[in-house]
Amino acid sequence: MTWDAIILGAGGAGLLAAATAGQAGARVLLLDHADKAGKKILISGGGRCNFTNTGCEASCFLSENPHFAKSALSRYTQWDFLALIESYGIAWHEKTLGQLFCDGSARQVVAMLLEECAKGKVDVRLSTQISEIAHHDGLFHVAGERGRNLVIATGGPSIPKMGATGIAYDIARQFGVPVVTPRPALVPLTLGETDRYFKDISGVAVPAIASVEGAQFEEAALFTHRGLSGPSILQISSYWSPGQPIWLNLLPDAHAVLKEAKAQMPKAHMKAALAEHVPKRLAEALHNLLGITKELANVPDAALEAAANRLTHLQFHPTGTEGYAKAEVTAGGIDTGALSSKTMEVKAVPGLFAIGEAIDVTGWLGGYNFQWAWSSAVAAGTEI
Ligand code: FDA
């Protein structure tokens, strides 16, 4: 038999695309090499799946073409996905910054998507290897099956130990579709000798304003034994390029804090003044970095000003990232210039589609990446 669509990858994007097409009457085959569907959904959001964000809009995504995501995001919105969640009676809550999570378990989201696939009579085949893909007589041939349409929904190579691969890029290149160089994103950064003062404070977390050229996020930062992590760092990692510095503002009101400390506790040292506002171990690291050893009363105002400036623009020199092994997503991917923003179809290869993380659209931390999976899936699933 000839399938109307063969969808490669039973992650969030593949499942919803299959369900959408199937429920519209298409005969759909969904293939995955994993033994379970939606494995990344299951581990997402600490097992509770941060399935969307109420503030989702195209400006929250990185892409060589920042306008590409607009069409799909506006036609299947966060509210549409939330309505689906509610129609299954899945209880949810907003955690922070518009991030919506299941009250119960991410398993409910996978069960919902599989139920949607069942409603669309989708044939879901797991533990199936995808080797060669052939294209002739207007049909796509894969894993001994043939279909009129082929949807690449195999994600990116982040977290290879869960079965993630870069097969999407191989398939794209096979069909002459360019690929924007993939890179780990939403990933911890590593520090080297230049930032040695922070080497021994692994586990310290603080609210911070993290910035890199072109982006700034205000959320927690975490010092790790290899460098920096935490939401604000993961966010700026997507914008970071090797060789660039990053900045942390660990004490936005440092000027007032130090001035007041000099007046109120003149006999104290910098460490004690800082420890009133940041964790003790961090205060000590900052004290060593600033190198001000005198009692505050004996520190000239200009030196305190300079110290405050440094605390609000603390420069770090990341040596790299923790790589795909720790990256929540992959930035870059199938070049959106080759795709229709309305349908996700490859313009030069009718019947070939690409959706989800496989393509060069990468969201911020906080439910944006799943929303892209849902929106791009519905765009393609509706077209098939
Ligand atoms: P996804 O990677 O989910 O699915 C691809 C599918 O293709 C997989 O089932 C895989 O097995 C299959 N596949 C890959 N290679 C194959 C091959 N060679 N042959 C056959 N099948 C193959 N996002 C968010 O919005 N909120 C959150 O809470 C989180 N949390 C989170 C936690 C962690 C630990 C990670 C790693 C990631 C997140 N994310 C997230 C990101 C989110 O999981 C991700 O963006 C989406 O799962 C992407 O969905 P896709 O369907 O595009 O790819």
TrEMBL record:
Its cofactor is FAD. Residues 4-382 form the RsdA/BaiN/AoA(So)-like Rossmann fold-like domain. Its EC number is 1.14.13.-. The keyword Glycosyltransferase does not apply. Keywords: FAD, Flavoprotein, Oxidoreductase. Residues 183-329 form the RsdA/BaiN/AoA(So)-like insert domain. One of its GO terms (molecular function) is oxidoreductase activity. It comes from the Bacteria. Pfam families: HI0933_like, HI0933_like_1st. This is NAD(P)/FAD-dependent oxidoreductase. It comes from Roseovarius rhodophyticola.
